[in-house]
Amino acid sequence: MNLLGHEPAWREWRKAMAGERMHHAWLFAGRRGVGKASFAQAAARELVGAAPGESGHHPDIVTLTYGPKDDKEERKRADGKPFELARSIRISQIRAMQARLGTRPTLGERRAIIIDPADDLERNAANALLKSLEEPPRGTYFLLVAHSPARLLPTIRSRCRVLRFPTVSDTEMNGLLGEMAPGADDATRAAAIVAAAGSPGAALEFVELELGKVAQAMHQILERGDPDFHLRGALAGLIGARPDRDRIRAILELARSVVAQRLDATLSDPRPIIDTHGELVRLTGEQPTYNFDAGLLAMEIGTLLAKAATASERADG
């Protein structure tokens, strides 16, 4: 089943597959949660000739994503236990993939290498990947999934054909949430749609992580300020003492959406809003590689929102 908004991407992909010389490297670009990874897996299966409806591991599809954080976590994975993920894709993973490229594909003439997300490659890993993109083995195709393509090396971007994945409309999002999250009330769905900014995955994550009250707390700080730190304390409590990486990322993206909603032409001074949004973008960019203390992060987000509260005054009073 195709996800929302994927029809143009499928047309372009299948047109390329039907051509005489298909490009060897593709960059699937778009907001987190619009279904790029799902598309990459499905496209790779078509590429290597997997039977329609076939699922499970395919020997000619190699997927590189976050691995265990260290040897201790690797042992946990080997034992079938929960393990902590690394915050980047490492050069050892690229080297292991490259070692396989010296052999022929197992079942056919094509092999697909999926890197998800490619914008979280370590610098050395990115440089190593570049060598494979410059001299791709015959029959090998690289599918790079990127939420923030600007973080990729320009030399990697230049060797890829870009396939962009658009966001979806609020109407489509509302219908999707009605199907996928029927237990969510109208207020939660409405908040999820605004916070997700056109990303179905982000909207579903918003509902699943129960971020409605977090969004309300952020709006209160941005509207009122927080001179006695009471609202910031409440925000920290809602975020939780030990949020995992996915929750931290979702909260940072939510804060950016909350701030972006305040930016319009009627603000008497938009600079505090613009500066706050810029700082939240910086924090979001650091999130994959930094170990944030949950309490300090909550206070930093709250303080940024409180400083921006002065921009809530409208030019027309």
TrEMBL record:
<dbReference type="InterPro" id="IPR027417">
    <property type="entry name" value="P-loop_NTPase"/>
</dbReference>
<dbReference type="InterPro" id="IPR050238">
    <property type="entry name" value="DNA_Rep/Repair_Clamp_Loader"/>
</dbReference>
<feature type="compositionally biased region" description="Basic and acidic residues">
    <location>
        <begin position="68"/>
        <end position="80"/>
    </location>
</feature>
<protein>
    <submittedName>
        <fullName>DNA polymerase III subunit delta</fullName>
    </submittedName>
</protein>
<dbReference type="Pfam" id="PF13177">
    <property type="entry name" value="DNA_pol3_delta2"/>
</dbReference>
<feature type="region of interest" description="Disordered">
    <location>
        <begin position="50"/>
        <end position="80"/>
    </location>
</feature>
